């Protein structure tokens, strides 16, 4: 093979080679499939196998996995229009700090892309004519070079391949979401071979059209033995080319492309395939027959001479017989060359990566080698448009099913394309600690909780912007919730964080009262100080009546206009009284209670100042003794408990939250344990749960008062809001109105059963060992031993994430900013492990 750049020109998604051959390139959108989703993997393998069968007519194709620069700075720039405007430059500066913190970890800032290249047919010439034309063109080119003259390029040559490209596109369209590469993407892919991880602006590279500049790199294979040194101006990168030397005897389950992605550093793969015809004198059938005949003769001769056969000949017979079986089944065969590209800034790092890659596959009985003297030749083999059909080295003979087993265009990407960093994808391997899990992954996970309402083109699998976070205490859900709250604080949205345990104030105060924190981290201090705390304290008389439903739900002047507010108020008041008296009273008393509620609602509609206490006073005036007893019973209950927040004569102005970010906490409540049965609640627990119910009613009013304003409600201990019928109904209503009301609902709770609604587009599920099968069903993963084991092996901070595209993967939650880590810290510093300090 001539060591020269094979390509000559590009147009659209077609690359023209120096020999006037043409290749078309297509972007194959990767599917995110869990390792333990056997059905999903099998379906994808079948799709790929059928695709490769369809490509046999084209004779040559290539599969590329390449790592493109993540372009972190420009990704974050896309967030700028949606940032908050009430904190000056703080949001922008915190983004800058976040990018610096991610970069400082040394993690590779790349993202995998999958490209399929197909060698096209020239529809306007036969093979003999074509070869003659190529020979003449090459002679003319060479002659022009002697006289320092550049022959004008005729772009009409591309037209000869258009019909073939259209046929290729139709065949590739068998896979969903496949598209032609743009010219910019194709150009960048060509240039990528010559820069391999060097810092660059891929947008500018993609706009280059000078073919000579695309390959303008010093390629030195003599600088360090066994490696290639790439020099571009002041940028230096060391590259190693490795080849797949042997595959497992049984290739089933050998998911090559998936295995490489799980490595902690970027690796490019290029699989070049050439269709191996079965018919003809040089066909595979004849060669298999000859091999079988030769090996059989050798076995017979050796057995007669020595009494036993050679294991090599036995193996040859076995392989030949299998080949014959496949040939008789009309299976398509391809000779393949698989190369791996590993790079680093220095030789020591590259050497370690190469050794790690070889050793990792060796444990699977797969041999990967790094030919020391062939590095430069392999470099040119890898270039787009290069013809390796005559190559005889490191060739693997695979059927279309065999190539399908390699699991091309399957990844584990999850999250948002544009968003804030929240952690890293977690490989299937079991980590020893949170930090170990982070160090072992290169897949950065980004998330924008406010993006779903802005994606209207059908590119998501859900129309719901709502997020649910579940898991046992101590697994990391509080830590993740704080990260999401930080993102909302940085964004242009108004939010309430419901904190029934008053934990947020404790953590925030610890850093806000620290003068060194303010001096060292002024932007983070500004962010945290922008939060306002509102405490509903039962012992504070100024709070009496602020949650009275007759104030929270405004039905004034709605008589004869709408029933929705009236019905909501009536249902809420009925539920509150029902929870208080439970089984007390008679049917007559309950009927009279309904009449009393209706009467007070009518007064409120007429503009009168009334409240829950007026309903009790209305009952007290009833002539029926049972009804009077009920009124007396209710009056006694509400005057000596947290129900004073809910019962009044309507004289309070109600709960006013005028700040953009509010943490609403309650003091003096007695909340029951999560698993306590409702019939076992104490009087004080019942009263506290009623308060939580009305807070849920208030949140619905907050969410729907301005449809043009982005609003968010985060409910910590969300189960306390949903134990009552009215609470569950309110949550379901809020979940349904999310998109139309521009509202985001985020319940945080222990069990996946606490919030009974399907209207949640994003799920974060931490482990809860008592309901692991339910968790898997909740996120949409198969309930099998593999997934249950993976869930049980999660370390602190790991969870399953289901994103707006329906993708489900395991992630390790991470906060990159040291200052925010301090604010989130839930365990005092001491001798505990670092993970214990970070996660709760």
UniProtKB/TrEMBL annotation:
Keywords from the named record: Plasmid
UniProt keyword Nucleus, yes or no: no
Source taxon at top rank: Bacteria
InterPro entries, alphabetized: ATPase_SAG2001_prd, P-loop_NTPase, T4SS_component
SUPFAM superfamilies registered for this protein in UniProt: P-loop containing nucleoside triphosphate hydrolases
Full protein name: DUF87 domain-containing protein
Organism field: Leuconostoc carnosum (strain JB16)
Source organism phylogeny: Bacteria, Bacillati, Bacillota, Bacilli, Lactobacillales
